[in-house]
Amino acid sequence: MKRNLPLSRVYRLLEPGPVVLLTTSRNGRPNVMTLSWHTMMEFEPPLVGCIVSNRNYSFGLLKATQECVLNIPTADLAAKVVGCGNTSGRRTDKFKAFRLTPLPAACVAAPLVAQCYANLECRVIDTRLVAKYNFFILQVLKAWIDPSRQRAQTLHHQGRGNFMVAGRTMRLPSRAK
């Protein structure tokens, strides 16, 4: 029999995709934050919507620079991902603190995180929902992937310190070829 689920826990059922590390850079100072509230919005050009709390240091950086990189870590980086999420970049250089390697991006000032499986260089293209919902719409300008990691085990946040690791892949009939 089903039981009542508090509304404050609904997000734990719908966490959309892999946890990412959002990087920004302003005045030559890079920053990284953990982000799990994002969603694909369009195929081509690829558009991604993401919510960045206005209480986060990265909110102001993203709003000011209008660009970022979405870096997709794998399960082996779980401790660093959680550490970045529990630390403010206002006072801490998280790249140094968590031994992450910044790499230059091709289209934006924000760095790629070398240890991540994939990196998406993005520009903010729509801020109409930022004031009300902290919702930024990003266009992916350049995408990078490590071809040696074909079965990457990504992290998926389930709330309150719980994560699921992507695992088994299934192939089912689809209209996409």
Name a few traits of the molecule.
globular, seven-stranded antiparallel beta sheet, 36% strand, 16% helix, Pnp Oxidase, Chain A, 5 helices, 177 residues, two-stranded antiparallel sheet, alpha+beta, single chain
Secondary structure elements and pairings:
Layout: H1 11-14, E1 20-26, E2 29-35, E3 38-42, E4 47-51, H2 57-65, E5 67-72, H3 78-85, H4 94-97, E6 102-103, E7 112-113, E8 118-126, H5 130-133, E9 135-145, E10 155-159, E11 162-165
Plain-language structure description:
There is one protein chain. With 177 residues, the protein is of the alpha+beta class. It has a single domain (7-165), classed as Electron Transport, Fmn-binding Protein, Chain A (Pnp Oxidase, Chain A). 16% of the residues lie in helices and 36% in strands. The chain is built from five helices and eleven strands, in the order αββββαβααβββαβββ. The strands form three sheets. Strands 2-1-5-8-9-4-3 form a seven-stranded antiparallel sheet. It has a two-stranded antiparallel sheet with strand order 6-7. The protein has a two-stranded antiparallel ribbon with strand order 10-11. A hairpin with an 8-residue loop joins strand 6 and strand 7 (112-113). The model has no long low-confidence stretch (mean pLDDT 92).
